[in-house]
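Checklist before submission:
- one chain only
- standard amino acids only
- sequence pasted in full

Submission:
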Amino acid sequence: MKRHGIETPVHNSIWIPVVIKFDAVQPILIIPEGEGDINIAALVKNEQVCEGTDNSDLPSCVSAFIEKEVGNDLKSLKKLDKLIEQMTESKMQLEEQVLTVSSEIPKRIHSALKKAEESKQFLNQFLEQETHLFSSINSHLLTAQPWMEDLGAMINQIEEIERHLAYLKWISQIEELSDNIQQYLMTNNVPEAASTLVSMAELDIKLQESSCTHLLGFMRATVKFWHKILKDKLTSDFEEILAQLHWPFITPPQSQTVGISRPASAPEIYSNLETLFCQLLKLQTSDELFTEPKQLPEKYSLPTSPSVILPIQIMLTPLQKRFRYHFRGNRQTNVISKPEWYLAQVLLWIGNHTQFLDEKIQPILDKVGSLVNARLEFSRGLMMLILEKLAADIPCLLYDDSLFCHLVDEVLLFERELHSVHGYPSTFANCMHILSEETCFQRWLTVERKFALQKMDSMLSSEAAWISQYKDITDVDEMKVPDCAETFMTLLLVITGKYKNLPTASRKLQFLELQKDLVDDFRIRLTQVMKEETRASLGFRYCAILNAVNYISTVLADWADNVFFLQLQQAALEVFAENNTLSKLQLGQLASMESSVFDDMINLLERLKHDMLTRQVDHVFREVKDAAKLYKKERWLSLPSQSEQAVMSLSSSACPLLLTLRDRLLQLEQQLCFSLFKVFWQMLVEKLDIYIYQEIILANHFNEGGAAQLHFDMTRNLFPLFSHYCKRPENYFKHVKEACILLNLNVGSALLLRDVLQSASGQPPATAALNEVGIYKLAQQDVEILLNLRTNWP
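Returned file contents:
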């Protein structure tokens, strides 16, 4: 082989053409059999050299292999023998591996085929066994079928007999209990009879899920039979005992003889009362099986409640008879325009019997472990009479405004006394549920709106509408509230009291909307009256309107923090969230208590208040400007210095200005409440400070005498006018005060200050120099202008 011009022996080996096919991972070499053994081994051993190449790169791959193993060094040709041996050895190893693999594969295939044949034989055996078993089972089922039919029939008979037996046992148990009750009654052992009836009633309740209708009917009929007998007997005995106690008590407790001067047999009577009461309590379970509690129509949405306990029902019977006798039918006491008659009667009955119920009946209930409150149970029974009466009467007077309004007022008074005096819970059925019925409630809202608007008309047209009721009492009249505003807020407060105890939040929210509408209507009316008084913005009526607006806004802000309105706010939040009527921001403000249910009204009132105050301030400011015309024309350049005057005195041209200001301040202090007047004078001072600074000070030049006179007029006359309203009035005249300081600086200090300002414009030293002489409000440019207004420079 010739390489780089040098011939080298090739050991009788020749290079054979090699065809290489590449898979996706590495190349596969295909070479003619028996040729190029050494070269093949070399390529196989170093296949990584050619990895990733195609057929066109084969010569370069071989060249790279020779270059790597031999290179340009002729001495490395000595390695060829060793290299040929290594490649031959590698070839033999590969051939052995191929032969080994070729010999093992047939053995594995033969083993697998053998196992498959065995599995097939086992499967055939199992199939034969399955066929035999299937045949045996079918034969057995056919043989056993008659036995199964006979056995099934016998089981059905046994189950039916067991049901009959259980049925007979129930009947036997019922008859046994019935016989026991009969025996107890024959021996006058009523307590045991009552206890046995309780057991029978409990069995009745257990049987309710059964489909044995005849058994259920027999059980119910038996319970009803003995219940009626026992109830009639116990009721008769109980009524006899109550009659001995002069029940019911028609007179007030103070005039009752029972409980104060008792007869000698009183202990025995109360003992019998307790015995009979306990026995009647035992009948409660069976009584509930036959007695349906009286329920009003669903439209009244009364809360569910159990029946009044049996002994209390018996005690209520004579009172119910009296109520129906007097307040139903054509009796003279049944007058639809006098609801207070039957309401007062029920309250009287509750009051008359409270002491007896608490002292005699409640201990019996406590003794037997009952959780019932005797007084509330008694009140609940009487309340049903009221609810039935209201449900019957309200449709008859729904469209007579005066009668309906009177009924509502009387019902609210009744409810208030019932809850506050007699402790009747608001969770029990009460009159507010009747008034909350849709038709009645909407009529109530309409009537309330109508009467409220009428009241507003009358209060605004009254001669004393704008006069405070407490004008002669200084301590009380701090707000200087006119009569119309106080009457209006009292009206709103009364409306709140009316709907405060409504059972549902949705009804309360409807009343709240009514109140907000009334506030807005009253605000509009006040605005209309205010516009009529605009020309006299300092007049008494205008100030009274302003006081009214301020008072209403203040009271509404106080109400917003009231627990009742906070609860309504939470209820409104839930309603708004359900209806998606507010933005997420508004909902968040409501939820975080940043806003309140009255915010819209308060904002409108505050805007009206600010507009009215601004109009008053502008009016007074115009008067002050007119009075200050002469003072603006004062000859500040030619006034004598302080040393040339014996005593400093007020400028004569300033007198009209100060007199006008004083008179208006005194007038408005008397007519406006303290908080409004404070805002007024502060707004006025702000405008006055700017006016004097711009129109008088900046518009003139001052010699030493003029500056001293201005300082005297301001600090000894103008500022003291406001000293009654604050401790340091000069702090509200910052521009004027600091201008006077600069104009009255001695010449040396003024020169030094001017130099500092010119040399350190906008720098901290300039600010420090200004602060040192008492200048905090004015900017540096303003200070330079003021210094230039001085004429007493050397």
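Reviewer check: The radius of gyration is 56 Å.
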